[in-house]
UniProtKB/TrEMBL annotation, chain A:
InterPro entries: MetI-like, MetI-like_sf. Belongs to the binding-protein-dependent transport system permease family. One of its GO terms (biological process) is transmembrane transport. This is Inner membrane ABC transporter permease protein YdcV. It is found in: Cell inner membrane; Cell membrane. Residues 63-251 form the ABC transmembrane type-1 domain. GO terms for cellular component: plasma membrane. Keywords: Cell inner membrane, Cell membrane, Membrane, Transmembrane, Transmembrane helix, Transport. It comes from Pacificibacter marinus. CDD domains: TM_PBP2.
From TrEMBL, chain B:
One of its GO terms (molecular function) is ATP hydrolysis activity. Residues 5-235 form the ABC transporter domain. GO terms for cellular component: ATP-binding cassette (ABC) transporter complex. InterPro entries: AAA+_ATPase (IPR003593), ABC_SmlMolc_Importer (IPR050093), ABC_transporter-like_ATP-bd (IPR003439), ABC_transporter-like_CS (IPR017871), Mo/tungstate-bd_C_term_dom (IPR008995), P-loop_NTPase (IPR027417), Transp-assoc_OB_typ2 (IPR013611). GO terms for biological process: quaternary ammonium group transport. Its EC number is 3.6.3.19. This is Maltose/maltodextrin import ATP-binding protein MalK. It comes from the Bacteria. The gene is malK_3. Keywords: ATP-binding, Hydrolase, Nucleotide-binding, Transport.
């Protein structure tokens, strides 16, 4: 017997996919256009706009900054997030429940508000250097992801395993590294990647915290677009997309994407 | 190598709730003692205190001549077997078993030898390179056992080790646990809520209730001479009949039961402990007999169930509903009157607290 799929369902599915993927197709097309302005469908085909990315020093420089921030900010958030997630899972009964929600706040507060308040407090208030302020800001916005994703794998972790290690002569702190960490590895990798991508693509926090001489790739993209309207913008976008897809593909291969949807 | 365990006047609290009250317990070298009780009685708390995962608010814990009370858990040198097995999922059977030896800095060559010996002893020879996820429940429990035993601890502790296994495997594994514990002569503390399990493998059993030990003795004594109503009820004395001595009548004692009925208890069969006491009787300790019998508790028979070795009756008496057994040869009809005759070997008389 064949399962019948309702035609309306098919229609909705197709429309949804068009809605999701259509703009991406437009961007990819525009990035290949042999014109000095953005247009779709592309007129002529060239990879010139891709090589052009690397000829504009502002792009290469901010790309470096963005990757550094994504790695640094994510690492910083892991250093805070893993112990926090551990404590929240280990002492679930003893700790008040609102503590867990605090770590979701950076998602709930409008990012633009968060960016503005970080600028006011860190940059203007304490005179923190731009790069340090960016690092703290990025660590903050990705913290919810690291705490939640690492927390999800800790929630299914049987803490008797840690006690077993301790009973066999392994001190508590050492048991965390030899027994707990290896068993939540998947969650840490998944959290790291989610956070990395979020940081790499962030605009709203960075736009407040970037300043003279220091910028990130998405911000540079905005600045570039205000002055020039050439397909480099599209090629940079495709590049960012490509990095994201590549990272996702690695996750899919090693862990399965279900980790992110759990 | 094996050592005795002594808990002296241990109290423990969770926040402001007291979970153990002035608990004392001695386990001799090589002895297996079970803590038996329903959930919340403090048995697991006791084990976790000895393991060092909790700290007592008062009292001391000694293992041999060492004071464990304030010693960190990893320095206590106790083999632990968990209900959930708690194997390390990322390590093979071999590395799971070798974990404790590695922590102790045992050389690689000796470790391999001891681990292999232990894996053989628990019958897991072919599974050394598997991960826990690829083992059955029984196999996991064997790994957990091997992992705890290989460090040759002076004390072994078990926290409901069999409750995740099916009935047949439970019996098999408890025999295995007892065999290994006796072969090593290791002192052991065993926590369970399963009476049959506790009685079958223990030298002595402590029956616990609300953070206190109600009675600590050999299974045989607990079974036949419970010290109080709680223990009596726990070991299957389903009928509790309040009684009061009225007068001595020759070779019998005349007592009045709750509800007013008088009965004569022969002195050569029953030793009355105090003026007021409780007669605790198993269902087989109240024999259903025809109303013409000489002595007994008058009852109206209710529902009859077939137990294979006897019939069991729900009986209405002036002292309340009771469970009594009757012979297979002469079944009684429900609704009829009968006498319930106390059988001394299946009854015990408990003094009532003043």
């Amino acid at each position: 017997m064949k399962t019948r799929i309702h035609p309306v369902l098919i229609f909705i599915t197709v429309v949804t996919f068009l809605f999701l993927l259509g703009p991406l197709v437009v961007i990819i097309g525009a990035s290949l256009s042999d014109t000095s302005y953005l247009t779709f469908p592309p007129q002529g085909l060239t990879l010139h706009w891709y090589s052009n990315i690397f000829e504009i020093s502002a792009f290469t420089r901010t790309m470096g900054t963005s990757f550094m921030l994504a790695i640094g900010g994510t690492t910083l958030s892991m250093l805070i997030g893993i112990p926090a997630a551990y404590a929240l899972a280990r002492y679930r009964v003893e700790l008040p429940s609102f503590l867990g929600n605090i770590f979701v706040l950076p998602i709930l507060i409008p990012e633009i508000v968060l960016g503005f308040s970080l600028m006011k407090s860190l940059a203007s208030g304490f005179g923190v250097p731009i790069i340090a302020a960016l690092l703290v800001g990025h660590a903050l916005i990705v913290l919810p992801y690291t705490v939640r994703v690492v927390g999800a794998s800790l929630n299914s972790f049987d803490f008797s395993i840690e006690e077993a290690a301790v009973s066999l002569g392994c001190p508590r702190y050492k048991a965390f590294f030899t027994v707990v960490l290896p068993n939540i590895r998947a969650g840490i990798i998944a959290g790291f990647i989610l956070a990395f991508i979020t940081s790499l693509n962030d605009v709203s926090i960075s736009i407040f915290l970037t300043g003279p001489g220091v910028s990130t790739l998405p911000i540079q993209l905005l600045a570039h677009m205000e002055q020039f309207f050439d397909p480099t913008i599209a090629s940079v976008s495709v590049l960012l997309m490509g990095v994201t897809v590549a990272v996702m593909a690695v996750v899919e291969r090693t862990l399965g994407l279900t980790f992110l949807t759990k | 190598m094996t050592q005795s365990l002594t808990l002296s006047n241990i109290s423990a609290h969770y926040g402001s709730t007291q979970v153990l009250e002035d608990l004392s317990l001695d386990i001799a070298e090589g002895e297996l003692v079970s803590l038996l009780g329903s959930s919340g009685c403090g048995k697991t708390t006791t084990l976790r205190l000895v393991a060092g995962f909790l700290e007592p608010t008062a009292g001391t814990i000694r293992l041999g001549d060492r004071d464990l009370t304030r010693l960190p858990a990893h320095a206590r040198d106790i083999g632990l077997v968990f209900q959930t097995y708690a194997l390390f999922p990322h390590l093979t059977v071999r590395d799971n078993v070798g974990f404790g030896l590695k922590q102790r800095g045992v050389s690689s060559a000796e470790r391999t030898k001891r681990v292999n010996d232990m894996i053989e002893r628990v019958g897991l020879g072919e599974l050394t390179d598997r991960h826990p996820a690829n083992l059955s429940g029984g196999q996991r429990q064997r790994v957990a056992l091997a992992r705890a035993l290989v460090i040759e601890p002076p004390l072994l502790m078990f926290d409901e080790p069999l409750s995740n296994l099916d009935a047949k495997l439970r019996v098999e594994m408890r025999v295995e646990i007892r065999r290994l514990q006796q072969a090593n002569g290791t002192t052991a503390l065993y926590v369970t809520h399963d009476q049959e399990e506790a009685f079958s493998i223990s030298d002595r059993v402590a029956i616990m209730k609300e953070g206190r030990i109600m009675q600590l003795d050999t299974p045989e004594v607990l079974y036949s001479q419970p010290a109080n109503a709680f223990v009596a009820n726990f070991v299957g004395f389903d009928n509790m009949i309040e009684m009061e001595v009225v007068q001595e009548a020759g070779d019998a004692v005349r007592v009045q039961m709750a509800g007013g009925h008088m009965i004569d208890l022969p002195k050569d069969q029953f030793t009355v402990p105090s003026k007021k006491f409780t007669l605790a009787a198993r269902p087989e300790g109240l024999l259903v007999a025809s109303p013409e019998s000489k002595i007994g508790i008058p009852a109206t028979l209710g529902m009859r169930t077939y137990l294979g070795r006897a019939y069991q009756y729900h009986c209405e008496t002036a002292s309340g509903t009771m469970l009594a057994n009757g012979p297979l040869m002469t079944p009684f009809e429900s609704g009829n009157g009968a006498l319930l005759v106390p059988q001394p070997e299946q009854c015990c008389l408990l003094p009532n607290k003043a």
